[in-house]
Design a protein that fits this description.
The chain is an alpha+beta fold and 433 residues long.
Length: 433
């Protein structure tokens, strides 16, 4: 009966959160923070709002510990990406519950986890939970854009509000069936986002006489092809090694990893391939603003993701070697973020493994590195926090989930919300209880 009540509670709270449009930009996350504040205070949880500007508030709630244990933070964000109603089967901010699923923008990324975090800490408070260390819940603004209104600002301006030894965030939790085994992914690291611009130089001229000009756009095309075709030498890092050892029973040579993973299941190869090398994806290009003017300058934007521990200055010689020396260009690195990892031999990892084995006997927790990045790196960099991305899901197949995040008809099964609440309650009792 208690589990059923919590399932209804979390789905109702999620529906109400979805009905608050927190599309970023502009965000307007304060309305969501106020809803959570009202819900949590009604359940006896201490809450406070922190805002760099009034309309973009972050909520931090806590059950205070006795002081002789580690602090655990449930981390989440309340902003969402754009949703075009014309692409959706139902209005994207309806929060409708249909066939056991809650529909709407943010259901998966990540208001579903926001609601589960809130219900987990509220239910523990109602039960009189007395942790050894603080149990904290943060629902932050501005994760999707990162303009400095969310966790980054909290770590700088109010560090004591979110300081913790352990944190649970988004990033993984997928249930995979690989080679006859069942595995739940837990993200323990993330790649660094390190975009850069390539500014290609030429000489302008009238488009009716292309022979007298030096078209920067045409020259840029050669560089786009080179960097898109480049495949760096693969290398194994600890997360991939642990994944392979768990799933394959061995760690093959780096050059054979993708093939060995594909032999188990195509999705295994898709998971490990971007984690073996830095990746370079040209995504934007701009040149002349007039049809009849040959551009003297062409700008290429490259989405670059580096492995944990790699830095732009170490990778730049590789990039310049790929681009070659026959085109006149400048290379400008933009702001790099992420690229952090947490250890695997920790009480939080023990909690993940115990929960997986209890929930589904015979299943295994397996570490992975997130090809993108999350807000976890702010905690790791500020406090040395052990931060994992783990919100388990077994009702919705991972390939369906991947197609819905940031896309139309986003939805989450109530059963997965309930499983998430169970996990968070287990983690709280195990890590800081």
């Amino acid at each position: 009966m208690a589990v059923t009540r919590l399932a209804a509670e979390v789905s109702d709270l999620l529906s109400r959160l979805i009905r608050i449009d927190t599309t970023n930009p502009p965000g307007n996350e304060t309305a969501a923070a106020e809803l959570l504040h009202e819900y949590l205070t009604a359940n006896g949880v201490e809450c406070e709002l922190y805002a760099r500007v009034p309309e973009r508030a972050n909520l931090v709630a806590r059950i205070r510990g006795t002081g002789d244990g580690p602090a655990l933070l449930f981390l989440s964000h309340t902003d969402v990406v754009l949703a075009d109603p014309r692409e959706w089967s139902i209005p994207p901010f309806s929060g409708e519950v249909r066939d056991g699923e809650v529909w709407g923008r943010g259901a998966l990324d990540m208001k579903g986890q926001v609601a589960a975090n809130a219900v987990a800490i509220a239910s523990l408070a109602r039960e009189g939970f007395e942790p050894a260390g603080d149990l904290i819940f943060a629902a932050t603004a501005d994760e999707e854009v990162g303009d400095g209104f969310g966790l980054q600002w909290l770590c700088d301006a109010h560090p004591d509000a979110v300081r913790c030894e352990y944190a649970i965030n988004e990033g993984a939790g997928d249930r995979l069936e690989l080679g006859g085994g069942v595995y739940y992914l837990c993200s323990t690291a993330e790649k660094m986002t390190a975009p850069f611009n390539i500014l290609v130089h030429g000489r302008s001229g009238h488009a009716s006489m292309p022979g007298i000009a030096d078209n920067a756009l045409v020259k840029a095309a050669r560089l786009v092809e080179r960097i898109a075709a480049y495949r760096p030498e693969p290398q194994l890092q600890q997360e991939v090694e642990a994944f392979l050892r768990t799933v394959l029973g061995e760690v093959p040579p780096a050059t054979s990893v993708v093939g060995a993973a594909r032999a188990v299941h195509p999705i295994a190869a898709e998971l490990v391939e971007p984690l073996l090398t830095p990746t370079f994806a040209p995504t934007m290009i701009s040149a002349s603003q007039k049809r009849n003017v040959i551009p003297a300058l062409c700008e290429i934007v490259v989405d670059c993701r580096l492995l944990p521990g790699q830095r732009p200055e170490r990778i730049e010689p590789m990039v310049r070697a790929v681009l070659g020396g026959d085109v006149d260009y400048d290379l400008e690195w933009l702001e790099a973020q992420g690229g952090t990892r947490s250890a695997l031999d920790t009480p939080l990892w023990d909690a993940v493994e115990a929960f997986v084995s209890q929930t589904e006997p015979g299943a295994h927790a397996v570490p992975t590195c997130t090809a993108g990045f999350t807000d976890s790196h702010w905690l790791r960099e500020a406090f040395g926090t052990v931060a994992y991305g783990f919100f388990p899901a077994r009702a919705m197949p991972p390939e369906v989930m991947a197609q819905l995040i940031h896309s139309a008809d986003e939805r989450v099964p109530v059963d997965d919300l309930e499983l998430g609440v169970d996990w968070l309650r287990h983690a709280a009792r195990t890590v800081c209880g």
